């Protein structure tokens, strides 16, 4: 048994082990206390925070360098993006006072999610390889140096984002309609304001909130997780390179498929960020409307 394990280690991981390793989060199982911190995906949290800071810095730099004359390419790109988000917000959220918060929120959501999605365009082994070297130099076992670099391929991140949108929607429901008006709406819509219909109305309202929140987060997670998995499968083609017709063919296929999927994935990461932003605006806009 020991000899077989040593031989397997010498020949590298199998395809299944390679994929499982790349899909395992960085977690510290020794962190216990009043809260179970061993379930925290530290890699997702670190990259999400880092990319949030990068997004804020880019927007700050664009605002700081803005001029009234002919804008540069960076300023023009940011202005186009800001104008696009502002127009979408005007068409969905009709309260001008609310848009002062909602429009910048939508812009932040789009840029933040786009940056997190864009991590999927990095070579799948680049950052994990560097982390294994660093982890091994620190005295750890490189085979247990787990790292996932796409925060939006982590369900806890996408559901956290969708729950944040839900909280904002609940806030605007109370702010626009008043606590009493919103509670009345919970029991009087969508079937009508009658005491016999109150339980059914309330149940439908709760189902609607839960369904919108779950689908909001799951849609982003599912697309990014699938994209990450396809990149791993393409990487396996390159890992099968050998000085044979099959090995050379797989290596060429790895280059062609990787390039084609990366180009197509640029559309996916942009579209998913846009869809999440638009649904955020739609849900907040619905919170302003009375049934």
Provide tags for this entry.
single chain, 291 residues, mainly alpha, 9 helices, disordered N terminus
Describe this structure in words.
The chain has 291 residues and is mainly α. The protein has one domain. It is built from nine helices and no strands. It has helices at 2-10, 15-22, 42-64, 73-92, 96-118, 126-137, 155-188, 198-239, 245-288. The radius of gyration is 24 Å and the shape is globular. It starts with a helix and ends with a helix.
Please tell me how large the radius of gyration is: 24 Å
- What global shape is seen? globular
Largest sheet: none
User: What is the H-and-E element order?
Assistant: HHHHHHHHH
β-strand amount: under 5%
Care to give the gist of this entry?
With 291 residues, the chain is mainly alpha-helical.
Q: Topology, pairings included?
A:
Elements: H1 2-10, H2 15-22, H3 42-64, H4 73-92, H5 96-118, H6 126-137, H7 155-188, H8 198-239, H9 245-288
Helix pairs in contact: 2-8, 3-5, 4-5, 5-9, 7-8, 7-9, 8-9
